[in-house]
Amino acid sequence: MRGLRLEPVASHLPAIDVRPGQSKTVGRAEHADVRVDEPSLSRLHARVSADVTGVVTINDLGSTNGVTVNGAAQTDAPLRPGDVVCFGEVEYIVNATEDTDPVSLGPLPSQTIVRRVAVGGAPKVDRVALEALLTTSRELMAFGDLPALLERILERFCTIAKPDRAAILLADSSTGALTPRAVRPSGAYTSVSEFASSTVVRQALTSRDVFIIHDISMDARLQEAVSVMAAGVKSVICVPLLGRAGPIGALYADRLGVEQFAPEIVEYAGAFAGHAAAALETAQLYDDRECYFRATLEAFAKAIDARDHYTAGHSERVTAYTLILARAKGTSPDELEIIRRGGMLHDIGKVGVPDAVLLKAGPLDPAERAAIEAHATIGHRMLESLPFLERSLPAVRGHHERWDGKGYPDQLAGTDIHPHARLMGVADSLDAMTSGRPYRQALPIVEAVRRLRADSGRQFDPAAIELFDSVEADVVTLVKSRRGD
Questions:
Q1: How far apart are CA 270 and CA 138, in angstroms?
Q2: For residue 109, with 0-12 CB atoms within 10 Å meaning exposed, 13-18 middle and 19 or more buried, which class applies?
Q3: Whole-number Cα distances in Å, 241 to 150, 155, 205, 214, 461
Q4: Coil, strand, or helix at residue 69?
Q5: Residue 408: partners with Cβ closer than 8 Å, 6 or more residues away
Q6: 113 confidence band (pLDDT: 50, 70, 90)
Q7: Given the DSSP bridges, would you call strands 90-96 and 113-115 parallel, antiparallel or unpaired?
Q8: What is this structure's pTM?
């Protein structure tokens, strides 16, 4: 063998080539022979060496996050084509260089890896497969839950192809690392390095074409892979998921024992992969649009806060205090994001309040009070047509409701007030009391906290005040840091 190349899973990272007599260090340091600027690598992480006969070994140079080969931690180990090497969290696939002596490796890859397998005329039409594809197409047009849709696509593919294991893999847009998103059977594997043939996954993505291995035992690069031998894999099929800008993942399936995939399965796999790619790209466009739109709304909310320098930063502070309370309640990460959106946008309706009212340096008369109170319903109307904010709307509308029913705009009382609005009401009042106004100074924090407790069961939900009591130190520390105390 004349040399090996370690190909990075993430396309932006450098490959590592070693030839007989060469030795290369790998790490984050400027003086490393191959600089891999990733945080999980040490400055000098490992050395890859080839002796004069072409035998390649890898040595851990005392790195913090270690080296693994085919999932097993190693301090020094030989490398062969098909091995999966991880430097910390960065994954590489070992390939033979183009001028490798084929005799030393056994059968050439072209003998076992077949691209776009010929099916000997028109493929067999399978009514069940066509119905599954049609149903998937209809669901794609109306999908609302991407993870659930990917699960259904994979489930229907498995009904047709009958693999023993299968997965839809997604590539991280920034690193290129692949992650299983839908897996059959559930929990069969959690990372690409556990697959029977991650080599085929990489080749399918590189070639942008369907790859199928009929008999893994005939492919020398995979014979030494522990996962292949342990699982008893016979054949593998992999289809790249192609978006307009390039590969975004792959559909992978394999069979154990002796049975191979039928040639026509390639065509069906390509069709199901096309559905998955379309769903992913559509979802990404939707997520990007939602992200930019939300950022615009939040910038708008900050601009409204900035109309009055006395309340500048109010929405961010209310959000921060509310999230402390919500975390103390054991709120899930998904729900915390809903609360965060509501907090950042809770006062967006003040765009409809005249400056003469909003910036008045003194008490408000009844008409002015009604105008300022209208911000809760104005904000709700502004945001109610946006699906991604639907679950944040109760806090936007209800953060001025009172436990005793004397709040606004709907005079809700007790548990009729949404739980998010009850927490936000405490946070909103705390920030109002600890912020200065033209007609009064900011209250001392001790006094503001006393007033919160005094209004438990009247203005505030007693359970929300109990939550505040449990995290008072954290909230007070944050208030002080934001006020510069």
A1: 18
A2: buried
A3: 12, 17, 8, 21, 50
A4: strand
A5: 373, 376, 400, 401
A6: very low
A7: unpaired
A8: 0.48
pLDDT number for residue 322: 96
Q: Which residues pair with 184 in a beta bridge?
A: 166
Strands 90-96 and 84-87, by their bridges, are: antiparallel
Contact between residue 251 and residue 276 where contact means Cβ atoms under 8 Å apart: yes
- One-letter amino acid at 432 equals A
**Both structure tokens of 212:** 């199928």
Residue 91 belongs to what H/E stretch?
strand 90-96
pLDDT at 323 over 90: yes
Contacts of 300 (CB under 8 A, 6+ apart): 348, 351
How does strand 56-60 pair with strand 67-69?
Answer: unpaired
The answer to which of 103-107, 189-193, 219-223, 355-359 has the lowest mean pLDDT is 103-107
Contact 66, 17 (CB under 8 A): no
Task: With CA atoms as reference, report the closest residue to 273 among 154, 359, 391.
Answer: 154
- b vs e for 144-167, b when ≥16 Cβ sit within 10 Å of the residue's Cβ? eebeebbbbbbebbbebbebbbbb
5 DSSP β-pair partners: 17, 95
* 319 HSE (CA, 13 A, CB side): 21
The amino acid present at 453, given as its one-letter code, is: R
φ/ψ of residue 80, rounded to 5: -135, 155
Q: Residue for token digits 């006393």? A: 450
Question: How buried is residue 308: exposed, middle or buried, by Cβ count under 10 Å (0-12/13-18/19+)?
Answer: middle
What are 433-462's pLDDT values in tens digits? Answer: 998 776 678 899 999 999 999 999 999 999
Give how far Cα 312 sits from Cα of 5, 315, 333, 350, 368, Å: 56, 8, 27, 13, 21
Q: Are 92 and 9 in contact (CB under 8 A)?
A: yes
Distances (CA, A) of 220 to 82, 107, 270, 385: 9, 7, 27, 58
**Which amino acid is it at 86?**
C
Confidence tier at 416 by pLDDT (50, 70, 90): very high
Answer whether 276's CB lies under 8 Å from 153's CB.
Answer: yes
Tokens 């009247």, located at residue: 458
